[in-house]
Amino acid sequence: MMFGSNRYSQTIAVALLCVGAAVAGPTVTPIWQFKGNARPPANLVYNGGNLFGVGSDGAYGLGAIAELVPPARGSASWTANTIYSPGNEYIGPLAFGPDGSIYFAGLVCGPPSQASIFQLAPPAAPGGSWTPTVLYTFSYPSLGYCPAPEVALAYANGALLGIAGGTTDEILGMVFELTPAPTAGAAWNLTTLYTFSGGSDGGYPYPQIVLDSSGAVYGTTVYGGSAPYPQGDGTVFMLTPPAQAGDEWTESTLYTFAGGSDGGSPGKIAFGPNGAIYGVTYYGGTACAYGDSGCGTVFQLLPPGDPGGAWTESILYASPGEQGQEFPNGLVVAPNGALYATDEDDLFQLAQTGGVWTETLIADHTQIGMPTGLALLPDGKPVVSGWTVGTCSCYAGVFRASQASTGGSWKIKSIFSPAAENDGSEPVGPLAFDSRGAVYGTTLGGGSATVGGTVFRLTPPQTTSQPWTEALLYSFQGGDDGSQPCCGVVIAGNGALYGTTAGGRLGGGTVFELTPPEEPGGAWTKTTIHSLTGTAEPTSPLVVDGSGALYGATNEKVFQLMPPAAPGGKWKEAVLTASHGANELVFWDGVLYGAEGASVFQLTAPAAPGDKWAETILHTFMHHRASPSGPFVFDSSGNLYGTAVLGGGGCGDVYQLAPGTTGTHWQETILYAFGGAPYCDSESYPTGLALLNGNFYGARGGGLFEVRGSDWSEHDFGQIGGALQGLYANQGALYGTASNNDQIYQITF
After folding, report:
1. Average model confidence (pLDDT) for the chain?
2. What digits encode the pLDDT tens for the residues 590-636?
3. Cα 439 from chain centroid?
4. How far is residue 525's CA from residue 561's CA, in Å, rounded to a whole number?
5. Could you tell me if 57 and 424 are in contact, meaning their C-beta atoms sit under 8 angstroms apart?
6. Which of 171, 515, 541, 614 lies deepest, with the highest CB count within 10 Å?
7. pLDDT one-digit tens code per residue, 145-172
8. pLDDT tens, 288-347?
């Protein structure tokens, strides 16, 4: 099968630069989500036989909703399915409707910050897609931080009850109701049921709603109560629905925390037997290793004996603050009345015997990591998700706790580990394409060695309703094998893939070859064909010429690798220039072009074998930090086009370099300059360039841009939400990488 090289054939494919015009609105679609940075789902909820939770598919914590399906008989691990992954939202706690729909808030940073209320409808048939629908959107002022205030929901009789945290010193949180609009597809109707004042009623409610059988709402506030916001130690409150629809709800403060030994900053609560409320506070209790203010409590509130009487609080447990036992954050109540709770590092049980509550440590961070979610299975036993900070994911996963008999020792069993699905993290450009439209590339991290990186292939579906299919071609093991394949792969005419790694046997990285299997489904064969020494780390993607020779660059040199004369022989290196490296290389019309520092240069092959390559500096940008970057593209007249990250007025530009007369520098024309004086904005610093339909396309910040060839006007056409690293054209579409979100995306017109 014949393959084409992305880095080499792209420049040939754009030989004719036609006049560009506006095209139909593009559609940006993530086609693959890597799981190397995926955290186990947090905020666990058990519903309909499965576990659901909010995961992090991206390196920077942007959210996804995961479904964990229990195993078939004889299997040990649960199966994880990502059922929603927008790539640019922080996702709040999940609530469920009777039909299995999931309701949640997707929080997007601003300005303005937004919280959209979603319904995620289950598929009509097993294995189908869940369908998201926006029901309502809040807008918040610019807060100066991310994410927007968290919103929690509860489903009640066809409506949604919600609680929104505070946003400013004047907006201290509210409880609201969303009811369906009379017209299908229209935004739901919002009614504010109660607004917190920050006084005795508290302020900044914790993102959780608990309902009793009468429809009353229970929750906690972090501030207020004993003193006005921003002071006070928080409250437990109840909102009672009116007897007549449309009348006001009634707020009652059930308990006001006093701090100190009484606890303060309450969080999650849950109902227990006989109408008792159990909950956690983030600080208070007894003096601990973190200070006299205490490291948190687990408390009980017993309802009054007579209507209108006071609730009675008891502290069941005060965190000692030793060896990770501090700051309780999770709580569930088992059918037998036992409490299961989590703190920063542990899962523990509180059980009552003879009126005395006793704490039992079930698992610590060496077994479950740092707890991020807690739920009960139908058998009344707890399931907890945990995450290990740092590169080690050895304790990350979802774990089930069980004991053979009451009072017996606890056993911890892993039911899901994201490390088992580690197909890479932080994909980087460039991308390469074969004749079938399959996409090839590399990830800097992930794989079977966790931090070694991978080479992958994404195969397009036969129909648009089907997903793309991933094949993990190789996982780097570090050490002599190399790691962090930084610069994509190039496809040679024989179907082999070539690329570079940052680590290797001689300390300076490697050049590797991946040979396709002889039989379909077989393993690709990886061979290190060249080792770079010392501090010589790869800085540019490889390019390949028609003879199969490879060209690459490090921070010290530009080099050529000639293939061996016979299979199994050694590749021969020739240094083309030892005075500098390159951050971009590309062939056009038999000449090698590159960028280094503030200059674009040309390397011309010698007329006779063994002679030196001739280097010519084509252009040096006036701004010494202009940083021209690739990929370059050419038109039929030989004009070169590219981006300079800090070009133009210092915020980046799209430029053209036109050939000069023999011996003179090429002439620069700035086609479009980004940003505005005196400061650059979030739409500055372009990287990469692709040419399609006579228009130029590229990436900057978290968005995409188009510069039209008809008038060189710039137009924004999409937000991705991750660190974008250029666009690459293939078969009428554009493709790119978002390393922060661990996604490969496709743009169609």
Report:
1. 85
2. 899 999 888 999 999 998 888 899 999 999 987 656 788 878 899 88
3. 21
4. 19
5. no
6. 541
7. 454 567 899 999 999 999 998 776 777 8
8. 766 678 899 999 999 998 988 999 999 999 998 776 678 899 999 999 999 999 999 899
Q: Poorest-confidence range of 266-275, 366-375, 442-451, 673-682?
A: 673-682
User: How far are the Cα atoms of 185, 258, 284, 319, 649 from residue 289, in angstroms, in the given order?
Assistant: 54, 21, 12, 10, 54
Residue with tokens 């290389």: 585
Integer Cα distance of 719 and 27 in angstroms: 11
Give the model confidence (pLDDT) of 385-427 as tens digits: 998 755 444 557 899 999 888 778 999 999 988 766 778 888 9
For 325, half-sphere exposure in the C-beta direction (CA atoms, 13 angstrom radius) is 20
Query: What is the C-alpha separation between 221 and 527, in angstroms, rounded?
Result: 60
Could you tell me the two tokens for 226?
Answer: 């004993």
Separation between Cα atoms, residue 262 and residue 287, nearest integer Å:
12
Contact indicator for 204, 229 with CB cutoff of 8 Å: yes
Nearest to 340 by CA among 324, 363, 356, 323: 363
Q: Which domains does the chain have, with CATH numbers?
A: 6-27+422-748 (2.120.10.30), 35-91+162-418 (2.120.10)
* pLDDT > 80? residue 717: no
Report the DSSP beta bridge partners of residue 133: 119
**What percentage of the chain carries pLDDT values higher than 90?**
50
* Distant-in-sequence, close-in-space partners of 300: CB < 8 Å, separation ≥ 6: 272, 276, 277, 278, 313, 314, 316
660: which 2 tokens? 């000069």
What Å distances lie between residue 502 and 441, 525, 535, CA to CA?
A: 15, 20, 10
45 contact partners, CB below 8 Å, separation of at least 6 = 51, 52, 53, 93, 94, 96, 375
- 3-class DSSP assignment, residue 664: coil
Model pLDDT for residues 249-259, shown as the tens digit of each residue: 999 999 999 99
Q: 407 is written with which tokens? A: 């009072």
First to last CA, the chain: 29
